[in-house]
## 1
Amino acid sequence: MSTHPTTAATVSVEEVDPEGAVVRTHRATVPANVHARRVVLPMVASLRTVAVRIHVIGALMLALPAVTLTRAVQPWASGRGCINAVVHMAGEDPQLAFEVPHDWGRRAGRSFTIHELG
């Protein structure tokens, strides 16, 4: 992430529960006048968390975004970013489905392939 010469930027991750309510919010601030800094926002999700929302506010540039659900920060690997990509959904295996106001009550295992085009 790069920031404006005089303005800091903020990355926030909201944990969302099955009803669509925000459980907690985690934030990281990147100071003004920073170029190409990797932002890491480690967190341990609540037992009620079923989804996350990621917000970036005030950044001048974002590059190579990644989200990993791992115990430690992962090194960059193949797939570090491209101008265009095609995502092919290879399969879906429903695990849970029930209706709730914000539609967070559906869960499924999915497999997909990402083809980088340039």
## 2
Amino acid sequence: MPVEMDYGAARFWWDVVQSLALLALFIWTALDKRRQKNTQGIDAVRESQKKQDRRIQRLEDNQERLATHEDLSDIKSDLSGLQEKITAQNNLLQTIHQFLLTNKKGE
């Protein structure tokens, strides 16, 4: 006697397998989408880090070219010397001016 197949039970188990496969596919898709978002976020952080590193490098390069305390003290002493020379020239100019005012050649 041939064995009769229970098509109702086979359909039930086929529906269970399909449901489990769809659930697994849903979970995998959700996890994959989350992984992609994380990857994009990590890439954005890396790009931001690279930009910040470049900016810091430019600041450090500019800082190396700035004047030091020794340079500024040298400039200050040079300016003091120039101020003394300007004052001396101004005094000489005032003396010449007074001489010219008091001793007119035509008189």
## 3
Amino acid sequence: MNVEYITTDGERGRYTDVSYFHQDRDGVGFFNGADLGFVQEDTFVTYAGPGHTGDVPAADEESMEDVMAELRAKEHTTDGMLIVGSGAHSPEESSENEMQDGSSIEKHRDQ
């Protein structure tokens, strides 16, 4: 599915080929079918589904896989983003607060 987002700074963008995402008040984790993905902090989903709503210019569309490859090349972290497994967390959270089962965050799957 395509997932559109907006940051707290007002930046809008779209990721393609997202299998599902976890969102909480601090940001959102985007994942592929292998439960690999990344967290983008201070970002909130505005649309998730096929196609797009038209609010995001094509120039602001990125492949999730391309973003993950770039993060790997930069030692897994950059600009508040972090490659993760299925337990999405932000870099500031302690390991005690990580929720591996998703019980404290919404889980959205494309159905």
## 4
Amino acid sequence: MPDFRTTCQIHAAVFAALFLSYLLLPGLPLAAFTLDAPPEARFLARRAAFVFLGLAALLMLTRNAPKSDARQAIAIGLVVIWVGLAISGIQGILRGIAGWTGWFTVVVELGLAALFLPHLGSGRHDDRP
């Protein structure tokens, strides 16, 4: 598994690509789940783009962080994001809201979550009151 620095760089690149996709081609992420892209959905996709940009910046700025509670919190947060997205994707596919093409996205999300699993124990574990 990659070290924390490399894991953060991989995720930052993914989030930067998602930012560009959601901002410039907002119908593309919807097409991944075989969904229509009405103007309202494209508007929300463009707004969500900036969440991805913020996550990319967070990861690039903390990629050199030493083992700490903050670094562990970042790892936990990213696992929660990816697993949550995968669960919502699975739910949408099984309920018939999203198309079968969403399975590829679910697999990628679970793979990205797995990259942070080795870093979950990177907290300080000292004796605190």
